[in-house]
Amino acid sequence: NVPVRSTTTHKPFRGAWSLWNEQEHLDIEMESPDKKAPVSSNSTAPDGEGDLSKLKKISSVGKAPKEDVMELKNHAWGGVADGASQTDFMYKDECIVVDEDDVVTGHDTKWNCHRFVPGQPRGVLHRAFSVFLFNSKGQLLLQQRAKDKITFPGVWTNTCCSHPLYGQEPSELDTPEEIKAGSCMGAKRAAVRKLLHELGIDPAQVPLNKFKFLTRLHYYASDAVTHGPNTVWGEHEIDYILFIQAEVDLKPNPEEVEDVKYVTMAELDQMLADPDLLWSPWFRIIKERWLVGWWKSLKATLTTDKAVDVQGIHRFDPPPQHRCCAGVSGILEDGSGNSEKDVKQGAYGKVPIHPVRLAGSVGEFSAALQLKLFGGMQKNLKVANEDVEFCQDMLNKVSRSFAAVILQLPEEMCLDILVFYLVLRGLDTVEDDMTAFKDPKEKEALLVNFHKQALLDTNWRMDGVGEGDEAVLLQRFPHVSKTFASLPAQSREVIADITRRMGAGMAEFVGKDLGQGTTTTVEYNRYCHFVAGMIGEGLSRLFSATGKESESLALQVELANSMGLFLQKTNIIRDYLEDYVDGRAFWPQEVWKKYSKTGQLGEFALPHFRQNALNCLNHLVLDALDHVEDCLKYLSLLRNPEVFRFCAIPQIMAIATMAEVYNNEKVFTGVVKIRKGLAAQLILDSSSIEGVHKWFYAFAQVIKAKVSEQDANAKKTVESCERIMDLTADKAKTHGVTGNKMMLVGLLVLPALGYVVSTLQKNSWNPEPLMTGEMALCGIFLSYMVASVFL
């Protein structure tokens, strides 16, 4: 079973609109005249139902006196009852709210249950039922929902779908004992009520004892197909599936039903293949998972318990088109404040970044100050023409973090690595775009042929793929391909080869549904190899080809692969929520299902599953730490100082990020980042193997200190950290402490002295400027910092 993705708490949650001003943020609401609650401009309730209390006169075996049935028919709601509107009934009727195990936790209005909004991004989990009615010929009765309904208007679906209601008499609330026995009389009573309401079916034609309860499914689906990606409507249900075979007379309610049709299995397949017809997500799930088998053996399905499952709750992801909603984009913030220049692909900007301090210590602050005043690294790129100028400018826009380490590389290889990065960034933009390609095969073909089309054709460009600067990169790609053509033949060969193999690897994953992550750890590692491990191999070959590193380095494929996997796994672990919201997650099911209660990756975002989430997170960090030894070996082979720094900085950042995310529940509510001051310190210490070992040792200590006895992998994690500490202890000690203090003092004194000298020179030794606020602040800061170091 494919687990449902969910991030709602599933608890009774009244009045979500009071927590989020949807008029302001979503611009699709208007107030009702009495201003009691927001009302859609299409004033139709999902399932407007009135008071059908007369149903209590139907007996437990489905018999009812004719006069009571007629009275019930007359009382059935037909759009207006006692002056009430459909919207009134949305607020009056209350669904039965349950948790993931179908345990009743309360009740809430239909309006609120179906709202996918911040605070309850998957609505409120509630009970539902789906009726499949067959005639004596074995044909299935389908209905097309009315086109003026709010949720899933105009879609085709099974005979009848709705909800048992709280407070009905006789009760529509099934007890655990009734579910275990398979009777489910509450759901059946609700089905009879709604078959009359929607299709005008006489309750006497569908007696309760003719219904067969089969199983339950748990799914969610936003109504993104009919309302667009920012819809606030959706379904999140535990659905009771009911089969019945009966000859009935139909009188469809036009406010509920657009059309009806009896179909054979072959006719249903033809309808499903028609691209102009829309289908409900729950019907697609049931059809693909069970319907064919149950239908082929209809008699056995209805008369035996062969198909009945009273124990399990089968959990499903919706089709990809039903995963977007306002609730997802607004889990904690809607990202609407992003400026155009900050637009990125996928869920970037939709998931909050947890704020961090600039610096956590004097050392961090001074390191940040040094980088700010003097710059961290020299730039060695020579801009020979407008194509190279574009490449440099685009590098700074699409990756501020990698730009500095690329541009400080030796002049002989700087441009080669720059072009390599932009080519792969273009390829990655194609892979990441989940909306530009209507046919996955079109996307696969482009990924597979990118190395030929984009690199060899200097006129190749692409519109409509990617967002922000990534889109501009593809639109103006001829600048990149022309620069590529100017590189040495050996460099071109390496870049083209890695691009070809990486594109083929990415294409392998295009057709896979990654809503619940990768399947096995083998697949997880394989994906990381394609998108990161191959980059490590390509860089090693370029380092050797340009003569800045030995030829033997190009042969260290396994070590280079580990370098890439460590970086990629760090990103995947940290970006759990971003990737999940984007519908392309990579946490392997083989791992996370060990810690999941519901079988759904989204549960880790819920507060009441937090310990399970942390255990899973820590397991994945432990897995990533296995690559550290290879990373340290690879770095020890490098001889060129700029190449060493280029490779060392991302690795130190990765181990720092691992220490930050380990056992950190913030991973499940946003993006966790390290402090800028700490990042500055890491950059300054990245020039030597001793500095690298110092930080790997320090962060292994941090992780070890954070290990909880409750963690299932506590012992293994401690052992892994101690192994890293053993590998780095000797060189870490030689990096020293005194030298750092002296450097810190020099760092502070030099800029202050430079400021004084510059000011005096400009003002002909006039002491007046020295009394400005800036100078006074500089003096105070200098005194404080020196005192902090020595006292």
Task: Lay out the secondary structure.
Blueprint: H1 22-25, E1 29-31, E2 38-40, H2 66-75, H3 86-92, E3 94-98, E4 104-109, H4 110-113, E5 126-134, E6 140-145, E7 156-157, E8 160-162, H5 176-181, H6 185-199, E9 212-222, H7 224-227, E10 234-245, E11 257-263, H8 265-272, H9 281-296, H10 298-303, E12 313-316, H11 326-329, H12 362-374, H13 386-398, H14 400-407, H15 411-432, H16 440-456, H17 468-475, H18 478-485, H19 489-510, H20 521-545, H21 557-574, H22 576-582, H23 589-592, H24 610-625, H25 628-636, H26 641-661, H27 676-684, H28 689-706, H29 714-735, H30 738-762, H31 773-790
Parallel strand pairs: 5-10, 9-12
Antiparallel strand pairs: 1-2, 3-4, 5-8, 6-7, 6-11, 9-10
Quick summary:
The protein is α+β, with helices and mostly antiparallel strands and 791 residues long. The chain folds into 4 domains: 16-329, Nucleoside Triphosphate Pyrophosphohydrolase (Alpha-Beta Complex); 351-375 and 512-736, Farnesyl Diphosphate Synthase, CATH 1.10.600.10; 381-511, Farnesyl Diphosphate Synthase; 739-790. It contains 31 helices and 12 strands.
What does this protein structure show overall?
It comes from Fibrocapsa japonica. One of its GO terms (biological process) is dimethylallyl diphosphate biosynthetic process. It holds the Pfam family SQS_PSY. The protein is α+β, with helices and mostly antiparallel strands. It has 4 domains: 16-329, Alpha-Beta Complex (Nucleoside Triphosphate Pyrophosphohydrolase); 351-375 and 512-736, Farnesyl Diphosphate Synthase, CATH 1.10.600; 381-511, Farnesyl Diphosphate Synthase, CATH 1.10.600; 739-790. The protein contains 31 helices and 12 strands. The strands form 4 sheets. It has a 5-stranded mixed β-sheet with strand order 8-5-10-9-12, sandwiched between helices. The protein has a 3-stranded antiparallel β-sheet with strand order 7-6-11. The protein has a two-stranded antiparallel sheet with strand order 1-2. A hairpin with a 6-residue loop joins strand 1 (29-31) and strand 2 (38-40). Helix 19 runs antiparallel to helix 20. The longest helix has 25 residues, at 521-545. It is elongated, with a radius of gyration of 32 Å.
